[in-house]
């Protein structure tokens, strides 16, 4: 039923020559963001942001950028262990296959939130806008949790 809905939207678009924005909105409806939180660190240290992306659609979807008014810099990172040393590398996109979900923490992905623009503390919420390759964007509240919050804590 869901995929039929997408086809209908695409037909209307072709018909009316409407903007891609409507298509983006349709694709966002196939995408859910869950368990959005930030591991807050003291002393203005960069903080890691974690989400679970759920793609219920028939097409892959890719997160390509994130921004937040409360941090001057937000990047997509992936942690990995190389020769026994944990490293972070910048990634340009995080792709979620159709009908699957991606748990950021479990895959080593995180948003790196650096240079806070205001004093933040655990319990606060920040609004992060996630941008996808299809031209869609989604703004999601992230809850700030203390430094000892586990990655398995949803
Ligand atoms: Cu990082």
Molecules bound to protein? copper (II) ion
- Rough outline: globular
CA radius of gyration: 17 Å
Distance between the termini: 30 Å
- Sheet of most strands: 10 strands, mixed
Strand content: over 45%
Provide the number of structural domains: 1
Can you give keywords for this protein?
154 residues; alpha+beta; Immunoglobulin-like; disordered N terminus; binds copper (II) ion
What does this entry look like structurally?
The structure is a single chain. The protein has 154 residues and is α+β, with helices and mostly antiparallel strands. The chain has one domain (31-145): Sandwich (Immunoglobulin-like), CATH 2.60.40. The chain is built from three helices and ten strands. Strands 1, 2, 3, 4, 5, 6, 7, 8, 9 and 10 form a ten-stranded mixed beta sheet that branches. Strand 1 (31-39) and strand 2 form a beta hairpin. The longest helix is centred in the first third of the chain and has 15 residues, at 2-16. It starts with a helix and ends in a 9-residue tail after the last strand. Residues 77, 88, 110, 112 line the site of copper (II) ion (CU).
């Amino acid at each position: 039923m869901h995929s039929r809905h997408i086809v209908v939207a695409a037909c209307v678009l072709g018909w009316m020559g409407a903007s891609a924005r409507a298509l983006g909105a349709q694709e966002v409806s196939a995408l859910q963001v869950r368990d959005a939180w930030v591991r807050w660190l003291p002393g203005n240290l960069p903080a890691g942001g974690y989400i679970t992306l759920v793609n219920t659609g028939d097409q892959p979807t890719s997160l390509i950028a994130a921004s937040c008014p409360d941090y001057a810099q937000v990047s997509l990172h992936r942690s990995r262990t190389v020769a026994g040393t944990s490293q972070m590398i910048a990634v340009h996109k995080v792709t979620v296959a159709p009908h699957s979900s991606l748990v950021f923490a479990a895959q080593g992905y995180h948003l790196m939130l650096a240079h806070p623009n205001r004093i933040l503390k655990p319990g606060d919420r920040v609004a992060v806008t996630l941008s996808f390759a299809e031209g869609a964007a989604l703004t999601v509240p992230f809850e700030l949790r203390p430094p000892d919050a586990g990655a398995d804590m949803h």
